[in-house]
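Checklist before submission:
- one chain only
- standard amino acids only
- sequence pasted in full

Submission:
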Amino acid sequence: MRLNDLARAARLSPFHFHRVFQALVGATPAEFVKRLRLEMALGLMARTRPPSLTSIALMSGFSSSSDFTRCFKQRFGVPPSAFDVKTWQTAHAAQLESVVDSAIGAARLEQLPPRNNPDHFRVRIRELPARRVAYIRVDRPYRGDGVFRAAHRLMEWADKHGLGHGQWLGYQWDNPEITSLDDCRYYVAVEAESFTARGEIGQFRFPSMIVADIELRGGIDLELRALQWLYGSWLPRSGYVPDDHPGFEAFIGRPFAHGCEYFELHIQLPIRWS
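Returned file contents:
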């Protein structure tokens, strides 16, 4: 991606786009893209049956395996062949659980044993049509009440424009077991076909996709147990792999309709055949 093309999309001069982007994101566009490519590579390395490092390099947007190795070593201190991705995931998962434990007031999360499903989660495979969404992006979603406030701003906007009846979604492209919690970004969204993106209201169109769907009614601890089971137990034995889309929270009704401690929603993991 060229700086001039990005600046043109943002309707800024390249000079001002570069300054604004770095002020908002904390990195230059080139640094940001490199981080995303390396995190994509980590996600591929963490799969039960990971591709070769050469394939991972090319799938993640690097020009060659040597370019990938050089960038990886600059960021993590060791080449990808010597990197312990499981230890990295475990450390990030512990950080996420610590944040959740503080929010719910008790340490109730435990790693589920393989094949165990004490909560009786049921997966339904669904095909979703292409969808356009209006969204608000939330930086640092695991800190403070930014997601809650963004959801209410989007609901006010949607009601004003007659769009509040659509399917409400929450999603993030980042995996908090790979990406630092401070670098994660969460999107509150509502499906809406006809509107004008303006200000903090963005627009994105998702293609049709197949998802593994789990319906949940409970607290955030139940949702994290469902995600642990879905990724750690169900997915490796399903014959599917994650598709190149974010995972979704599809709310039953409106976001936070029951406050911040009880949720009714569907977890939707986009998948494809391995």
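Reviewer check: Residues 57 and 65 are 5 Å apart (CA to CA).
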